[in-house]
User: Fold Succinoglycan biosynthesis protein ExoU from Aminobacter niigataensis.
Amino acid sequence: MSGTDVCVIIAARNAAETITTAITSALRQPEVAEVVVVDDASTDATEAMARAADDGSGRLLVLRLDVNRGPSFARNMAIRNSRSALISILDADDFFLPARFANLVGGDDWDLVADNIVFVEHASVRDVLSGSVAQFDADPALLGFAQFIAGNISSRGARRGELGFLKPVMRRAMLQRHGLSYDEQLRLGEDYALYARAMLMGARFKVVRSCGYCAVVRPNSLSGQHRTEDLQRLADADLGLLAQPGLAAEDKRILRRHERHVRDKYRLRRFLDLKAAGGMAAAAKFAVASPASFMAVVRGVAMDKFDALAKSGSVPSVPEPRLRYLIAAENAGAQK
Assistant:
C-alpha cells in the first residue's frame, strides 16, 4: 500500500437503514484502499446490509462484536485490522461527498486534516446527494490547541456544532509514534479526547473550509444519546489532559473551562436522575452537597424552564437553515 492510501473505519450499531449509503460513499473514493466496518453487537440487520454493500473490489472488511463495547472499542478494533497509512473516520449515519479525499490529503504539513461538515436533516439527504452543497474556498489553517478546546464548549439553546464533530484523516504513523488510541472508557466525546491528546503531543491539526463530509441529523441517532456517567467520564478525561506536563497557561485555562462546562452538565443530569428515582429529597441532598453542584443545578433548571417556554411559543424562535455548516466560510462560491 502507498503512503496516500486511505482506510475508512466505521463503527456501526443498529445502522441498517444508513450503512449502505455510508459504505458506498467510501468505496467510491479512488484513494480508499480499505473500508473496515465493525458492527458493535447490532440487534438489526446492520451486518447483513454492510456485507451487501460490497462492490467486489476486495476493499471491504466487515467485523462483528457479539457484545456492545462502544464506539471507541469498535474504532480501535477497526484500526488494528487495517494497514493503510491514512485513517479516516466515518459515522454509520453519515456519508462522504464526491472527491472528498482528492481535496484533502495532499501535502505533508499535517498529522490530522479535516474538512467542513454539512449537517442535514434526514429528510433532506436527497438534496445533498443531488449537489446542493455550497462550494467554499479551502482556506487551510492549522488549529491551535486552545482554539480547539474552546470550540468544544457548546452554547445553551444553539444547534450543536463543536469542533469535536470534525472527522479528520489521521496518519497511522502519528498514532503509533505517540501510542495513541481511542479511550475505551468514553462513549461520549471520544473523538474530542483523542484529537486533544494528539495535539498536546505536537500533532498538527489542519482544517480546510471546503466541504466533503455530510452528517445526517436523525432524531434517533445513537450519537445524540448518552448516559449521565458518560458526562462524568468526559469531564474526568479533561482532568487527565490537565495533568499533562508543559501545558501553557492559556491551555490550562480553557481546559478547566471545558471541564467545568461538562461537569455542570453531569451535575444537572445527576440531580434529575436522583429526583426521578428517589424524589426531591434525594436530589436536593445532592444539590446542596457542594456550591458547584448547587449553582449548576439552579442554572440548569432555570434554563430548562426557559427552553420549555421557547418550545411552547412564548419566546420567538429563529428558523433553522435547510443546510448548516460546522465551520463558517466567508469565501463561499456559487452553489452547484
In short: The domain at 6-220 is CATH 3.90.550.10 (Spore Coat Polysaccharide Biosynthesis Protein SpsA; Chain A). The longest helix spans residues 249-278. The chain has two domains: 6-220, 228-312. The chain has a mean pLDDT of 89.
